[in-house]
Task: inverse folding
């Protein structure tokens, strides 16, 4: 089932990858919320993130050395893991090799979407979760 909106948790240091991924997902009809495009300058970012986490129905987390060391990524993931509505709707995205168990010891039990080999393969794999075929532009 296609998300009504997917929350994309990430480190701001991985912005280039996250922007590229978001563009592909949106191009394929997957609504994505992430802080760079959805928080306006004057808004209270803490409240906006909380509201988005409560509103979204899928949770994507970009895994990298940067995100593993991010206090905010950890907080967002812990929140998602505690919500019943995210059951079977949490997708770890392996962007770069890292010790992702630092974020949560349960991450190793989730099916990882691997973007380390080829970006297109990762896109194909993540879209397949929602029954959407990957199309190059």
Result:
């Amino acid at each position: 089932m296609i998300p009504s909106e997917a929350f994309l948790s990430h480190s701001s240091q991985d912005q280039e990858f996250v922007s590229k991924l978001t563009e592909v997902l949106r191009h394929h009809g997957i609504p994505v919320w992430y802080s760079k495009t959805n928080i306006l300058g004057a808004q209270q970012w803490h409240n906006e993130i909380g509201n988005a986490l409560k509103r979204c129905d899928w949770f994507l987390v970009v895994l990298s050395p940067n995100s593993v060391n991010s206090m905010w990524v950890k907080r967002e993931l812990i929140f998602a893991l505690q919500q019943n509505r995210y059951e079977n709707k949490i997708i770890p995205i392996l962007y770069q090799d890292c010790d992702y168990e630092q974020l949560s010891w349960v991450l190793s039990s989730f099916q990882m979407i691997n973007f380390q080999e080829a970006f297109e393969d990762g896109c194909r794999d993540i879209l397949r979760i929602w029954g959407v075929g990957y199309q190059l532009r």
The radius of gyration is 14 Å. The beta strands are 6-9, 32-33, 58-63, 90-94, 113-114.
